[in-house]
Design brief:
Blueprint: H1 17-25, H2 27-30, H3 49-52
């Protein structure tokens, strides 16, 4: 089954499955990239980017 907007990839991980799942289950590690806001966050369609910078 394929979906129009989907992607997949395969890689080899040199770690024990228990370690991989422990890493993925830790919300402080898995969501760490969400701690820094991106440059696009906070902008609205009504406010031009120059006004917010």
């Amino acid at each position: 089954m394929t979906h129009e907007r989907s992607a997949s990839s395969t890689t080899i991980v040199s770690a024990q499955p228990e370690d991989v799942f422990a890493f993925l289950d830790d919300p402080t590690v898995f969501g760490a990239h969400m701690e820094k806001p991106s440059g696009e966050q906070g902008r609205t369609a009504l406010a031009p980017a120059a006004e917010l910078d």
